[in-house]
Structures are given as structure tokens and as C-alpha cells.
Specification:
single chain, about 140 residues, mainly alpha, 5 helices, about 0% strand
């Protein structure tokens, strides 16, 4: 397996319980783990609904719960894998540098986008109606509806 900068392979970190750089990139790492577990829960629920009908409900639930538990552990280990954790730490550092728009700027920009979209849709409607009229004209007769 490929080794990370710290010299550990991902398979070696699967059995450890330690945290890598505990207080750095904490929010991004927690949200990433929550997202991964949410995907696992939805996947386990979908699998639970399509498992064979002859299987007992206890076995179906056991398989789904096992998938969620294993996925939760993998999510915990992935966000503490040194290369991925360093990436998430740098993501949080870059996000903190972003200058976010104020609510007033956000509303004005949204209004400009909505007005422009309506204008462009009406302009395309006008072009469409013009070309439809032109092609239905008796001398051209391209569209025979």
C-alpha cells in the first residue's frame, strides 16, 4: 500500500484509536465524518429494504446495523488518516480566509440573477415565437403543423 507522509499506511491506522492533530480542522473533520455516516445509514436502509424476503427481520436488521457500525468506524478512521486529515485541516484554513458577502449584498446579487433569468427567458421566448412564425409562413412552409 502507499504510505503517507508520516510513513503509515491506511491499513495500519484502521486498528488504532488515536486522533491525528486533535484540535486542528475539527469542524470540517466532524462534518465530513457525519456526512460519511449519513451516506452509510441511507445505504444500509436501502439495503435493508431490498434484502431477500425469505430472510428473517432480525438478520436483515443485523446486517444493516453491522454496515452502519463498520462504516462509522471507517469514517472515524478516514478523517484521522494523516494525509486526509491534513487536507481537511488545510480546507478549514482556506475557508476561514474567505470574505463572505453581507446579507444586503446577497439579496442584491440574488435579485440581479433572478431578474436577468426572467429577462433571458422572455428574450428566448420572443426569438422562438419569431422563428416559429417565420417557418410557418406560407412562402417558406418549413413547419407544416
Amino acid at each position: 500500500m502507499a504510505k503517507s507522509k508520516t510513513g503509515q499506511a491506511f491499513s495500519a491506522t484502521l486498528v488504532s484509536g488515536g486522533l491525528y492533530k486533535r484540535n486542528q480542522g475539527r469542524l470540517v473533520r466532524q462534518l465530513t465524518a457525519i456526512g460519511l455516516v449519513a451516506v452509510a445509514i441511507f445505504g444500509a436502509y436501502s439495503l435493508y429494504n431490498v434484502l431477500p424476503l425469505g430472510m428473517s427481520a432480525g438478520v436483515q436488521k443485523g446486517i444493516a446495523v453491522a454496515i452502519v457500525v463498520v462504516s462509522a468506524w471507517l469514517a472515524y478512521r478516514v478523517v484521522n488518516f494523516p494525509r486526509f486529515a491534513d487536507f481537511l485541516i488545510s480546507v478549514e484554513a482556506e475557508i476561514s480566509k474567505v470574505t463572505w458577502a453581507t446579507w444586503d449584498q446577497l439579496w442584491r446579487s440574488t435579485a440581479v440573477v433572478i431578474v436577468l433569468m426572467f429577462f433571458l427567458s422572455f428574450l428566448l421566448l420572443a426569438y422562438d415565437m419569431f422563428w416559429q412564425f417565420l417557418f410557418k409562413w406560407k412562402w417558406i412552409g418549413f413547419l407544416q403543423i
